[in-house]
Amino acid sequence: MLFQRGLPVLACLVALAGPALAQTPCGGPFSQFVADLKAEAVERGHAPGTVDAFFRPVRQDGAVLRADQRQGVFQMPFVDFARRLISQNRIDNGQANARRYADVFRRMEQEYGVSRGVLLAFWAFETDYGQIQGDFNTLNALVTLSHDCRRPELFRPQIFAALKLYEQGDFDPATTTGAWAGEIGMVQMLPEDILTNGVDGDGDGHVTLKTSAPDALLSGANMLRDLGWRPNEPWLQEVTVPADLDWALTGVDQPRAAADWDAMGVKVREGRAADLPAALILPQGRKGPAFLAYPNFNVYFEWNKSFVYVLTAAYFANRLEGAMVFDAGTPEPGLEGDEMKQLQRKLQARGYDVGEIDGILGAGTRNAVQAVQKELGMPADAWPTRELLARL
What is the pLDDT of residues 5-60, one digit of tens each? Predict the structure, then answer.
């Protein structure tokens, strides 16, 4: 599973039952941490016997913490990342699954307005269409990450959501497994997501995301709609760009009417541009691939915060629906991990907010690169090069 998940709407849910409940601190002896969680669960209204049974098998899992610290794949540039994730086998399996579950996809499109390619792409990237769902014990993962003091506010609510699923008969603390970050099932949803957006797609009375493709696909579509997906609208189109474009106008946070882009010489490669606001994104600068990103593209960031993952998933959704292979162009070589960290430090020293110094070209770093390119009179396409690093 490729993490960097946005963990939608969780940051504000540290105390699901309100301020009256004492917060369980992170860190300290693990056994005491679990004891405090159990006390809080009882305080939230869960039966003591149920709480004891739920937490009885929990163990701290060091492998979870090691996996959390190992996400170097997100340092890859888009073209390399996309070629690594998108194989002919994944395309063939996606098309086969589209045929196999045609009725489910028709229902998804009619009820939720989410195109089949979107869920097929997530299904492929998250678990290879259900084949690799992760073998980390889910409760162990959630409690371990909550005990760790880096992002406890993101994971603590998931423990209590899993407890509710347990009470409903849809979670076994001893045997439920999934990704290292606590996601479960074919499209890797967190317990809170399952509680909020789970759909019983096969009509058996349970939401079973590990073994039921209809449940997983419809639940994923329901979650996207809940996150703001605009029914029956596009999300991404590949375009060609003129050499004399004002590159400072590009970027995810600078949408304008598609007709305005057309007037500036930005042309879609297939079909017609939608009559919607669109941002022009250049994942590897003005000489690389180019895409118009529509409002639905922004919803992808609620599923996963990594720009390179989001763009690849959005492009693959188009590809699964028949789009041509993107034109990779001839982008200038980018920066390697240590070079990127050096750039981030230099940008930070100039007063730009790049977020964590992690060697990943995220939104903060892209914005800072574009700003400093304008400052230095360079083409402001937000693509960091060795020339820029040398100029700084």
Answer: 444 333 332 333 333 344 557 999 999 999 999 999 999 999 999 999 999 999 99
- % of the chain with per-residue pLDDT over 90: 86
pLDDT band for position 72 (50/70/90)? low
Cα–Cα nearest to 284, from 258, 308, 316, 253: 308
Place of tokens 């909020």: 196
Q: How far apart are CA 149 and CA 170, in angstroms?
A: 29
Count the neighbouring beta carbons within 10 Å of the beta carbon of residue 141.
Answer: 26
- For 130, 187, 199, 216, 328, the CA distances from 195, given in Å and listed in that order, are 20, 15, 9, 13, 41
Amino acid identity of 63?
Answer: A
In this structure, are residues 77 and 284 in contact, taking their beta carbons and an 8 Å threshold?
A: yes
Q: Report whether 145 contacts 182 (CB < 8 A).
A: yes
Residue ranges and CATH numbers for the domains of the chain are 236-320 (1.10.530.10), 337-391 (no CATH)
Whole-prediction pTM = 0.90
- Contact by Cβ (8 Å): 277, 225: no
Q: Nearest 5°: phi and psi at 329?
A: 65, -155
Query: For residue 71, what pLDDT is reported?
Result: 61
Q: Which two tokens stand for residue 93?
A: 């399996």
Q: For residue 261, which amino acid is it?
A: W
Burial of 392 (0-12, 13-18, 19+ CB in 10 A): middle
* Token pair 């002919």 in the structure block, residue: 88
